[in-house]
């Protein structure tokens, strides 16, 4: 509550303020001092009497004004002290409740004390204190745990945080409804908060390669798989470049990986992903194809090469003077797919038998394999084909049906293999019944390796 007291002073003598009255008295005295009393006459006496009366009249107004100001000050003082209230409560403890309710409006002499400011500074303040018991929430804390097995800056919440609570007793002090102080008396925790735990990734390798544990990654060069995360540890096995491994975990600058059933460590700087290095997938495919090449490789299945691969391995060879094999690249690819016979093996037989298409039989009869020829009369007995593909197709059928698959095997074209000359599915096994030259398979395999190396 705020009270206002208004003071207004009026008089018949038009009392103004102390400064004006004093100014008027000084003016009268100044005028009197100008008169010469050496020659006293009636006019001087009358003038002197006039100044005297004027001075007395002004002094009277001064007394009235002083009296009125004293009355105002006494009234204000009484109002100030009358507005202080003291209360005692809360089980015998003393709580001060100070209420000062007043707002004084008055006019003051410009050269007098500024009573209005004094009153506003010392009155019109409502000060209260309040005892409060209330529940307060306890915010949970967050703990961050670094994890090198996660990508840099990646975050996973392992444990959700939960706020707790406590009962708090405080004394709050207000001035004019504004909180100015707060004193804690007691607090009792009713429920403990649960800490939130967040794992934060630190691995730049995982971030740069956009991979996680368990993903497939690739070696960028020929490397050794070490037993421990140290270059001086035992070497377990060699891994050719571009081959894939499975990421197990991170260990500083090393990655624990699994390769062909064996676990070990490789420096992360020698590993990449298909995301970071898109060309690694093609390099991996070619590498696995080339690694499968051997004298003992199975030939009763597709080579796995694409049409572009066949064009690549059969193009721009200076020994192919007439470009016969370069132009037949698609024919070898089709035979590979349609009959499940290694197309590179077919091309290598043709290169060996026709000397890269330069033989008379190859050029005149479009027969790259000397198919049907006998040693006694090879040119006359050799088959003649309308196209080079006709000769390639007939050889693929014959190998698949008679040489590379055992009797009863269901072939790619739906036929059933006779297995009439079957001794196995390798070049050496075909050599037993296919050619009289005992080294035939070695010569053919040499061309196969050359073609695969062109990849």
Written description of the protein model:
Helices cover 36% and strands 23% of the residues. It has a five-stranded antiparallel beta sheet with strand order 15-14-13-10-16, with no helix packed on it. The protein has a four-stranded antiparallel beta sheet with strand order 2-4-7-8, with no helix packed on it. It has four domains: 5-124, no CATH class; 129-200, Resuscitation-promoting factor rpfb (Resuscitation-promoting factor rpfb fold, Single Sheet), CATH 2.20.230.10; 211-285, SH3 Domains (SH3 type barrels); 292-453, Lysozyme, CATH 1.10.530.10. The longest helix has 41 residues, at 42-82. The protein has 455 residues and is an alpha+beta fold. It has helices at residues 18-32, 42-82, 115-122, 204-209, 280-291, 307-314, 324-327, 329-339, 343-354, 360-365, 378-381, 388-403, 427-434, 440-453; strands spanning 5-6, 98-99, 104-105, 126-138, 142-151, 155-159, 164-175, 178-191, 196-203, 216-219, 223-226, 235-239, 244-251, 254-259, 262-267, 271-272.
State the helix count. 14
Looking across the biggest beta sheet, what order are the strands in? 15-14-13-10-16
SSE order, one letter for each helix or strand? EHHEEHEEEEEEHEEEEEEEHHHHHHHHHH
* Nearest-integer average pLDDT: 83
Distance between the termini: 98 Å
Shape: rod-shaped
What top-tier CATH class of the largest domain fits best?
A: Mainly Alpha
What number of structural domains do the residues give?
4
Structural class of the helices, strands and pairings? alpha+beta
CATH architecture type of the largest domain: Orthogonal Bundle
Gyration radius from CA atoms, angstroms: 57 Å
Unreliable stretches (pLDDT < 50, length at least 5) are 1-15, 36-42, 44-48, 80-111
What's the total number of strands?
16
> In terms of quaternary structure, what is this?
single chain
Largest sheet: 5 strands, antiparallel
Q: Classify the fold: give the CATH topology of the largest domain.
A: Lysozyme
Helix content: 25-40%
- Tell me the β content: 15-25%
